[in-house]
Amino acid sequence: MSALGWGALYGLAAGLVIAVAALIGVWGERKVAGRMQMRIGPQELGPFGLLQTLADTVKLLLKEDITPRAADVRVFRIAPIIVFAPIAMSFAVIPYASGFAPLDTSVGILFFMAVPAISVIGVLLAGWASHNTYATIGGLRAAAQMISYELPRTLSVLPFVLLAGSMRPLDIMDEWRWWWIPLTFIAFVVYFISSIAEVNRGPFDLPEAESELVAGYFADYSGIRWAIFMMAEYGGMVAAALFGAAFFFGGYLHLPGVWGVLLFVALATAIAVAMIWVKWTFPRMRPDQLMTTAWKVLTPMALVQLAVVGLVIPWLS
Amino acid sequence: MTFYNDRTGLAQDNGIAETGELVVNVGPSHPSTHGVCRVIVHLDGETVTKAEPVIGYLHRGIEKMAENRTYLQIVPLTDRLDYVGSMYANWAYCRAVERLAGILVPERAEYLRVIVCELQRIASHMMALGSAAADTGAATMFIYAFDERERIIEAFEELCGARLTYNYVRPGGVSFDAPDGWTETVLEFCRNHRSALDMMDRLYFGNVITRQRTKGLGVLSADDAIAWGASGPVARGSGVNWDLRKHDTYSVYPRFDFDVPVGSNGDCYDRARVRLFECYESCRIIEQAIAQMDPGQVKAPGLPRLLAPRPGDAYDHIESARGSLGVYLVSDGSVRPYRMKVRSPAFCNLALLPMLAEGHMLSDLVVILGSLDPVFGEVDR
Questions:
Q1: Could you tell me if A284 lies within 8 Å of chain B, comparing CB atoms?
Q2: Number of H helices, E strands in chain A
Q3: Distance between alpha carbon B335 and the CA centroid of its chain, in Å?
Q4: What pLDDT, on the 0 to 100 scale, is given for residue B126?
Q5: Residue A280 touches chain B, beta carbons under 8 Å
Q6: Gap from B314 CA to chain A (nearest CA, Å)
Q7: Whether the predicted interface score ipTM is above 0.85
Q8: Which residues 163-202 of A are in CB contact (within 8 Å) with B?
Q9: Residue B30 distance to chain A (closest CA, Å)
């Protein structure tokens, strides 16, 4: 099959996987948040309310697709896709099972860090094209935030490149040793925090700050276009959790075969639940504090971690 | 490239994006304006250069409506003033009527009034703390605070059948005596409430982001607080030790042993903390009141249905959850008041917003507004 054919097949599969992940993610978030707030969460539709998100999706599909009159129509319509597509692509380089990553490339780590960053353009465009003051402020905040957090996030995964001597995810998994977990602990903290910021979730959800900007850059979106933004957010969270589970905790390596894959998914779920937990406990930060955290706290932490790993490596060989 | 000027809406094709002041209209329908507040915010980047509150969206003319109702018919109107703390407006109004007509209130009624108003203070502060937390994005604190408020509302429902507009305090007493077992319910609530307050203290005030967000924000000096007529937790957060329950005491308050929590920095953190500590003090007052209360009448005997006070005027004020709430009544000798005027603490406190918000960020504006705890039923009247 041609490269285009494979690409189309992958796109379909990734879209399906993200849609299912987002469905379960939204349900999981509502359940976890419910339990934290002395509520039950969705429970009426399907077993444990599992079909609630499906019903919500149907509702969103049937809703009127509104384009504001003052909007820049073409940009307004394409923005959700620019936000979503890079997130979907980032799933390609994650090593899911022994010797299997959908896109086995020698620059996998770089790919995972760089490609989702394209979605910031979509966010900025969405905010700008809506021609709405709230949306514009949200879009500008998002641009500043996502680009700032790009740096500590990328620095936090560099220790693996140093340790394995390769940027290819499968090579890193082959080289992976259990003592990497304590060694890269600081990096994991940096990765965890900057991943939350990267996908615009609380306490870093400034671009869509409900109490200030109502919904921020997607304030004027409705129906399925709005749902695509939400799917991008959940997709980003799931991708970050999967990536973190694979490299920081060894993913599938601890158990053989299918059990390994299940363990990998369980680890990723634990990281995602921690992200939900943080969101529902913490208040939101202020834009300037957000920047201070990125540049004055997380970046130096990631650099220290990189130096520690750099010092350990010659000692090992 | 074409750029659009946000103020004029006109295209500018000079290839240079104009940077300038941005005017954002926050409200009257906005997630965190605590009702129907509209604030016109002038922004330089994210910094607020000017914030103008626009009020009046909830104006119903309650003071004017009162001129066409009998004294008893006005009580339900006062419910609609501060709809988060209806008991206060009931009581302030009834005190003015009682002063005007020279009515003596039975002791048990005074105790019941104190108990319901202290419960109301807790309920109102829970709403203030919860929504202030929600303004900063802490959704879970909001739910916990509202759960506590729900317990109080259930107790009120048991007492007088209403959950929001109680119409409970009436001229000459209260509408119903406490049903059997009600005081036990309230005492049990007080016991549980203390541990809930401790938990909220750790969850919200112990959080590092909360401290970063609220400490040193919207600082109000003690002198300014007095000069602007601020009262209640807003003034006490700035270190002004002024509580009508202590300093112009009324009803049976002199018989209780309680403290007035006072802040020192006058920032949003201190204002919120004062509210939290006041809830502990309210629990103390309620427990003492229930212990001291004797059985007896809850309505002044021999009171006519239609009150017609002698011509004259009367003013009385009480310490509501938002500050000193006063009602001024003028009688011309008929069964309806000639004039009613409400001195609303929320209105005076809201006037501080432009001063406090200037120079802070847009994100801080909603936090400052939340810390002033305005209720628009009372601001607009």
A1: yes
A2: 14, 0
A3: 30
A4: 92
A5: yes
A6: 42
A7: no
A8: 202
A9: 7
